[in-house]
Write a structure and sequence with these properties.
121 residues; mainly alpha
Length: 121
Amino acid sequence: MKKVSLRSRLKIESKGMFATSAFYAIAGIIFFILLLTASFAPHLGIIGIFSLVTAYGVFRKRTWAIWFVVILFLVGTTFSAFMIYSTLGTDYLLGISAIVYLVLTWVFTAYAVDKRNVFES
């Protein structure tokens, strides 16, 4: 019997693209969890939806995915900057998590934009 690895079943050609897709998927799930715990925060749901759609597009290497990455870069940077500013000195855990999200958004956006020729094929 032939043993098939998970990597070959998922057709993972690049660890970086897989990590980028995983980041957006995990971020989308976290935003939906935050949406459930917040009293009224529709922006969390919108960011969550965009993150999950972006994760799908990056994983499947769709040509439109790079645009979603750029849109999430702008939205994520604005959202994180606002969260860092509004929690400055009051909620350290939320502030640190916003900084981590901001840095990871910048890193994965830079990686996806650098590898944008993968999306055009």
